[in-house]
Write a structure and sequence with these properties.
With 450 residues, this protein is mainly alpha-helical. The chain has 17 helices and no strands. It is globular.
């Protein structure tokens, strides 16, 4: 007979707890969660084939792209994010669900055209590159409008847990889809067929998304039209950066935070491959498996932190976790340069990657929901669009800057001082987030005294 303690941890127990928790939510929240989960099922098939790594795999193995074309293909993910900021203004004056549905239909139709790439002959690789570029723009624009659903329909005190639950469900779904697709291609299914299947799935997701209703959206659109009658659509997604100075400062600290993160994530690939000379299992564990384990293990705790505290506390904690991970990584890289025992070096770097995964869990949640601390409801997608745009900008620059700095002798053996600089930058960003929180609390105190 299983122990009472063991049974309390069973999957059935967790399902019952989740159901009980959902039952306590307002009716419109439960309805939105249910409909978003239904739409997420086919949406996972679309997202699975548009990810940067998977499209790179298709480009290399199926189309035999050169190194330069492969790098360009994988960079389109961040270029799509960069363009999303200026373009989101064109969609901001129409209902968000309609915009989301139209974007899903457009992305799905592009995926369906990939199934015809066999007829492109010698131009197939360039056509595929252009098609994925269009897809990445569409997928980047979808992000702000999904955030608008979360902002309007999910209570602030429960929003973090709901978004984490949806994200975990989507992550499992995407992993399953990729495994099925990979197994099918091993059995000679052409890659064009999986894009056709995902395109059809995207159309189904667009239909299911239309069933969601955003609470208070009509009033939000009227407010937007009244307060911004002559706003230029191309600039609308970026104007919030200088119109809302507090949000602009937050984005400045976040840019430093994210840039310092991406620089080291880039050079770590070189360190693992060239310095440690890791095999595939070690390399895959260090670069991806261990960090994702940290994300999965702590995502619920980060959601609880977000719901119980505020954005700035969570950003501070996540940035300090990144700082700690870089300090541990410095030790591991230094040990490697000193020719220490290989197992000790790998162990220290594995620990740094686990801490990185913990930091990543908080960063991902704050990235999805952080703009809501600043944005009025009618400008929610504009604020998120600006955030997405700046993410794309640093994502394009950071890999090139990281590798250039890594090759400089002044950065020490194996870039150890560059890692130290990134740790300092993360700490400075953490302090910046706390300063913003102090400013917010001071404003609230002044208002209460009036």
């Amino acid at each position: 007979m299983p122990s009472e303690k063991g049974s309390s941890r069973s999957p059935g127990k967790w399902v019952m707890l989740i159901q009980a928790w959902l039952g306590e939510l307002p009716r419109i929240t439960r309805l939105t969660v249910r409909r978003e989960f239904y739409a997420t099922i086919p949406l996972t098939a679309l997202i699975a084939v548009t990810g940067m790594v998977f499209t790179g795999l298709i480009g290399r193995k199926a189309l035999h792209l050169s190194d330069s074309l492969l790098a360009t293909l994988m960079a389109t993910n961040f270029l799509g994010l960069l363009l999303a900021g200026p373009l989101v203004g064109f969609f901001n004056r129409i209902p968000k669900i309609i915009a989301l549905s139209r974007l899903l239909i457009a992305v799905s139709l592009v995926l369906l055209t990939i199934s015809l790439s066999a007829f492109c002959g010698d131009w197939a690789e360039y056509v595929f590159l252009f098609q994925i570029f269009l897809v990445q723009i569409g997928m980047s624009l979808i992000i702000p409008f999904r955030a608008a659903i979360w902002r309007a329909n999910y209570p602030a005190r429960q929003r973090g847990k709901i978004v984490v639950l949806i994200s975990l469900f989507m992550t499992v779904g995407i992993s399953g889809v990729i495994m099925v697709y990979s197994a099918a291609m091993d059995r000679k299914l052409p890659f064009q067929a999986i894009y056709f299947i995902s395109g059809i799935s995207g159309l189904v997701a667009a239909f299911l998304i239309r069933r969601i209703r955003i609470r208070g959206e009509r009033q939000s659109l009227r407010n937007l039209a009244a307060n911004n009658p002559r706003q230029i659509a191309m600039l609308a997604g970026l104007q919030v950066l200088w119109q809302d100075k507090r949000f602009g400062i937050y984005m400045l600290w976040q840019f430093l935070n994210g840039f310092a993160t991406l620089i080291i994530e880039t050079i770590l690939v070189v360190i693992v491959a060239d310095v440690l000379k890791s095999n595939w299992l070690e390399g895959g564990s260090l670069l991806t498996a261990i960090p994702f384990l940290g994300v999965a293990a702590t995502s619920v705790l980060w959601a609880r932190s977000y719901d119980r505290n505020d954005l700035f506390v969570m950003r501070f904690r996540a940035a300090m976790a990144w700082t700690l991970s870089r300090v541990v990584l410095m030790v591991g890289v230094w040990l490697a340069w000193m020719k220490a025992d290989e197992s000790a070096v790998i162990g220290v770097i594995l620990l740094s990657r686990l801490v990185s995964g913990i930091a990543m869990g908080g960063g991902q949640l704050a990235w999805r929901l952080g703009h809501m601390e600043f944005a009025p409801p009618e400008k929610d997608s504009l604020y998120m669009g600006a955030h997405v745009c700046l993410t794309g900008l640093r994502g394009i620059i950071a890999p090139f800057a990281g590798l250039a700095l890594y090759r400089m002798e002044i950065m020490g053996p194996n870039g150890v001082w560059l890692i130290g600089i990134s740790a300092v930058a993360q700490m400075v960003a953490a302090v910046g987030f706390l300063k913003l929180r102090s400013y917010k609390l001071m404003q609230q105190t002044d208002l209460n005294q009036l």
